[in-house]
Amino acid sequence: MTTDAIEFTESVERSLALAVGALRRRQDPAGYWKGDFETSLIGEAAEVILHRFLRLTDDAVTTAAAKTILAEQSATGGWAAYHKGPDELLLSVFCYVALRLAGHDPDEPAMRAAAESIRTNGGVEAVDNPTMLAWLALIGLWPWRDIPLIPPELVLLPSRFPGNIYQIGAAARGIVVANSLFMAHRPVTPAGFDIKELFARPVATARQLPRPRAVRIATTLSHWYARHPIGFLRRRAIRKAAKWLVRTQERDGSWGGNWPQTANVVVGLDAVGYQQDHPVVESAMAALDRYVVTRNGQHRLEMWTSVVMDTALAMSAAAMTGDPGARSAAERAVRWLLTNQVTELGDWAVLTKDPVPGGWPYEFANDANPDADDTSFAVAALRRLHPPGTHAAVDDACARACRWMLSQQGKDGGWAAFEPMRWQLPGRDTLARIGFLEAPSADITGHVLEALGAEGQGHTPAARRGVEWLRRNQRPDGSWPGWWACYHLHGTSAAVTGLTACGVPGTDPTVTRACAWIVAHQQDDGGWGEDIRALHDPAWIGTGDSTPSQTSWALLALIAAGRADSEPVRAGLDFLIRTQQTDGDWDEPWHTWVVHHDGLYWRDSLLRLVYPVMAMSAYRDRMGGSARTSGSVRTDGSARADGTEWR
């Protein structure tokens, strides 16, 4: 290397040392890592609605949530779904309703501004998410007659029959079954007010707005059947649906390890007569309380916990650094990760031939629905610490995990996060948009291929099918859209790292086109960024404020493709060095992760640190830097990247 290259590598190592110190400090004494899961305020608003529906008399939660909602109101009156985003209609409606339930008068200046924002964005009648409108119907603010109903008879359909619950995406399955229960009864706990001020049109109703033909047909048919059900089938379906929900409750009292699914199930069970002192409901309510956190003095709701993802990625990052202290921290996480591998059959097994458990879920508790993404992260992390043949327990866990991932590969060769796409009826795109279905994606497929490569299975027929899926689905411009993060940057990075892990060379035309796309979208400051708006507006694809995590995704792809010694990589690393904070961490207020493409996005306070550590470590290794962080640079966050002390 030239003198300049050596000096630059050393500056990367100094920055890396700072980051390693920050990463080690973030580890929980139990061995895992967990960042803050931060979304919009849709959860806090729904929490207030839930308390009203259940007639909970303690209004402390409502008061605290309303205070947070008011504090986050935008200058234009509504509420944004992501950092620097515009007012979002559905979110603003929910926040407004929550404030009304908390006792705020519609004539207050803040409430008038909110109502004006909602009307400007089309009015409440323009909300087109039926499952969210159902929550307004629960408190009498929307007519049940205008919502397509989910019949509980779905649970009676044979498992391979079109439209049965096992063709619905795993992440939404419990919500669908729960919705079918309360939609069968259509209960109402009156809010005590109306929301006429939120309509953009005089005396508007949902029926006066144009709706997609499929929605109109579904609404008409579902309500006709609701008025004329086959009695014994309806009773049998309700009993079976309730039993299915009780059977699938997780060990921590939740469903799916998350707040939204648990809250919907609580409403569903309430509708069929489960009292709040029933053990199942008591356990569920305790689980809901555990999602409440205080952050910066505010009442916040962590609707999901990304603990397995955060732990596995942090383990990989720590292992990649070569730092003895970081590796020791990662080793402490090995036992926690192995303990949390799913060893029982779950929902995924119903339509899987010769099912073998072995996946990992996203959350602390979601044994019914492990996912390929987090399983791939876990395998990659374990193999970075213990290559095949060096640790018996890790060998066994990784073998079972890979068997499980292979069993969930789609017929077309790609992977979705949970299960292969099996939906056989119309409406696939609409249902995917609101989170009811999930198709295979480049980010999940790339991550699985990377894990298979780490396990020594990168040249197997299954891996080759995954590679071919990526080749077929590459966009003409060289990119891939992701699904669970924003957007083409994430999909393209995952695809490139997955392809190269399976032996595809950096000179392969598929990889070359991808790298050219990445380089073409580098920002003037040296970083990379892609705004959430890219999900809905092609003009934003590959474009946005540079962020530490997205810059690192781009760097990891370029380095994996053999382009470490290039000006774009050096400029990206320089961006990371310049934007690093004194404690070794980075600031990232942008929402770069996706729950639902229909408006629910999140950010992770740990991954903004983890990915830069990975990128810097990968660069140092490719450029022949030290095998470990320099002994002259402490990893406690006390040294600057230029070698001087922080003051």
TrEMBL record:
Positions of the UniProt region annotated as Disordered: 623-647
User: Domain Squalene cyclase C-terminal, which positions?
Assistant: 306-620
Compositionally biased residues, Basic and acidic residues? 637-647
What's a Gene Ontology MF term here?
intramolecular transferase activity
Q: Name the InterPro entries on file.
A: Hopene-cyclase (IPR006400), SQ_cyclase_C (IPR032696), SQ_cyclase_N (IPR032697), Squalene_cyclase (IPR018333), Terpenoid_cyclase/PrenylTrfase (IPR008930)
- Where would I find the Squalene cyclase N-terminal domain in this sequence? 18-295
Is Magnesium a UniProt keyword of this protein? no
This protein's source sits in the domain of life called Bacteria
List, in alphabetical order, the GO biological process terms annotated in this UniProt record. triterpenoid biosynthetic process
* Signal peptide region: none
GO CC terms, sorted: lipid droplet
Question: Is Glycoprotein one of the keywords?
Answer: no
Q: What pathway does this protein act in?
A: Secondary metabolite biosynthesis; hopanoid biosynthesis
Q: Which keywords does the record carry?
A: Isomerase, Metal-binding, Repeat
User: NCBIfam families, per this entry?
Assistant: hopene_cyclase (TIGR01507), squalene_cyclas (TIGR01787)
Record-stated family: Belongs to the terpene cyclase/mutase family.
Under which name does UniProt file this protein?
A: Putative squalene-hopene cyclase
Question: What organism does the record attribute this protein to?
Answer: Streptomyces bingchenggensis (strain BCW-1)
